[in-house]
Amino acid sequence: MKNDTSSPNRLTSAEVQNLADFVLFSQRSCILNLSPVLTRGKVSYPQFFLLAYLAEEDCLSMSNIARMMGHSTAAATGMVDKLQTLGHLKRYTAAADRRKIMVRITERGRELVAQMRNNIAQELSQLMAQDDRAEKMDAAHRVISRRAAKAQD
Q1: CA-CA distance, 14 to 66, in Å (whole number)?
Q2: Least buried of 46, 75, 108, 147, by fewest C-beta within 10 Å?
Q3: CB pairs under 8 A, 24+ apart, for 64-71?
Q4: Residue-wise over 15-25: b if at least 16 C-beta within 10 A, else e?
Q5: Are residues 34 and 119 in contact, defined by beta-carbon separation less than 8 angstroms?
Q6: Residue 2's pLDDT is what?
Q7: Which residues, in sequence order, are CB contacts of 119 under 8 Å at separation 6+?
Q8: What DSSP designation does 12 have?
């Protein structure tokens, strides 16, 4: 692998590869840990991702939800129906155009997203702590190896 050190702020290829590995591993680990909580709340991953997105927005139109999720309008409607039945979303008509259906997350939906974010943050913290311990062990091993080599000289 080529190491690009042309810019002090730029990551090397090896660092980028390590970051990609961390993202893949942590994503898998976090998603697996989301499953029991989402299953308990009867929320699918796509529904959760929609809730997480809505938690950052004031509201979205049904057509924007369909486009953002890569679904047909009918599929998006089914997803919103389910989340509304569970009390996570609320639908209303736009004031400017009563034909337009808007969707907003409820406090219950925000609480679920906050709980999941906290769980993800804890999981990432644990993963990073494990990585820190491994780095410290590697550094200690290098120091001990150098001192052992000097002692043999």
Answers
A1: 38
A2: 147
A3: 65/103
A4: eeeeeeeeeee
A5: yes
A6: 47
A7: 30, 33, 34, 37
A8: P
60-61/89-93 β-pairing:
unpaired
> ∠ CA(142), CA(148), CA(151), 5° rounding?
145
User: Cα separation of 108 and 132, whole Å?
Assistant: 36
Question: Could you give the CA distance from residue 83 to residue 43 in angstroms, rounded to a whole number?
Answer: 8
Residue with the larger pLDDT of the pair 151 and 108: 108
In this prediction the pTM is: 0.67
With residue 81 as reference, give the H or E element that holds it. helix 73-85
79 closest CA partner among 88, 99, 153, 96: 88
- Residues facing residue 61 across a β-bridge: 102
Q: Which two tokens stand for residue 70?
A: 């890569």
90 φ/ψ angles, rounded to the nearest 5 degrees: -135, 135
Contact 30, 80 (CB under 8 A): no
Q: Which two tokens stand for residue 123?
A: 């999981």
Length of the chain: 153
Which pLDDT band holds residue 136 (cuts at 50, 70, 90)? low
Q: How far, in Å, CA of 93 to CA of 59, rounded?
A: 11
